[in-house]
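Researcher: Next entry in the queue.
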Amino acid sequence: MTSYVVTSAPPNPNGDLHLGHLSGPFLGADVLTRHLRQRGHDVRYVGYSDEHSCYVPRRAAEIGSTAYPTAKLFGDRMEETLSLGAMHHDWFTRPLTDSTHTEFVQRFFLELWESGALEVQELPVFHCAPCERYLYEAEVRGECQFCAEPSDGVYCEACGLPQDPAGLASPRCTACWNAPETTTMRRIVFPLERYRERLRAYYADAQAKAEWRPRLISYLDGLFERALPDTAISREADYGIPVPLPGWEGHILDTWFSGIWGYAAGTARVAEANGDRSQWERLWTDPETRIVNFIGFDCSFSHAVLWPALLLAQGELTLPAQVVINEFYRLEGDKFSTSRGHAIWGGEFLRRVNADALRFHLCLTDPERAQNNFSMKEFADTLSTVLAGGLERWTDTVLDLLAQDFDSVVPAAGPADGPLAAERAALPGQIAAALGAEAFSPQRAADVLATVIERADADLRQLALLRAAGPRAEYAGRLAAHVELLAAVAVTAAPLMPGWSAFLAGHLGLPVDLGTRMPVWDGVEGRLLAEGAALPAATPLFFHELS
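Model: Structure for this entry, 547 residues:
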């Protein structure tokens, strides 16, 4: 058994989660967590709402509210959406109402400050005279200084590179859309270049043990071709976690600095809920603990560069073993956009469709290594051909035949026979390889399952012919192969389709773990057909057509 801490990138509570959000860090982290637990590992899945982000007051101004109620409104919606999709964390911190988050952020800031890991520099910043405010991240929009794509004031979504504090081309204030002036500000800075060689050693070690995705490796290689930037971690503002130093009143700590400590705080809250808060520190200081971060590519700098360097500077906590990125997930060929209303909101959609059907389709079209696209037609095709028309038909037919012929088939059946026996033997290993943390690919797992379902459904005609014309022993072996494969699919597909898997496990009499509510993986390599099981004549429909 290995201990894991799994995290998902913190979402801004400035709107509900759309399908683009769900397809990446949230579903990926949930699938990995479920698979690891099914394999007997000890896992904490934590995250938090980025409630101190400057996107929150910007959104509040747009809807005629203020930051705190806006963070609560959309934070509640995000949690509800994650619950509807069966993707909720073990602990999802809401920092504005949970002091542990601020406590951890300020604690680790002071550790770094007192150790000399931080510097004070006078840096150029944008200032909007009409609005009488400094502009940061969501408050300024322009063109990336590296790739010229539209970007806000911190990280470019297109190339992922951090912008200099006043480096955007053609900047505009997002409140009044006037061009800002450039002035200077005293800020606390983390000198990243100091950690160049230690970061390189960390990457070499981590990538020798796990398969980091090619885009992230290419991004890191490109970043290290130039000097690593001094990264500002504080700014002057009235919304955020205060810098806990005398003489720095009115300055806050940047949320990009805060993130890694937010994950540690979430782990502490899980440990506290389980009766031993100190357990978080044992986990995070044990070099054998595997920390796996799930992010969108645009967060590569923070999760794969800045945060590991901060952990190196802190010197006691364990660095991530794996950073899993995803590319953009588009909607009908165009980028998801909250401002243009080009989005399918998770909460609304999951009230109309089966959560397992959506989870399976998002895994099947997961933008793991390249941008991918969600279309209603493709989702309807997955529902009608793979799930309702394939998996459900196969399940109903096999269970119906087994219920009718159980007494005569089971005594006659030797080892499961026919072409599906080979599928059954290979399936557990294929899914374990696809869903392990070392080379995590829910898309590959969904592809394997879709292929198995297609082949099993196609074999139903041959099964019917054998039932009608015999020989009986051959039919018994063929039916046993179907049942064994169906049971193996129920077990191995549980991380992708937890509801359907538990549903079918009940009909097949498979053991279900009370803690995870998933069919037990142990024994999936052996025979699963339970002699004497009480099986129904048919199963009710599980997957439903779009309303």
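Model: The radius of gyration is 26 Å.
Researcher: Noted, moving on.
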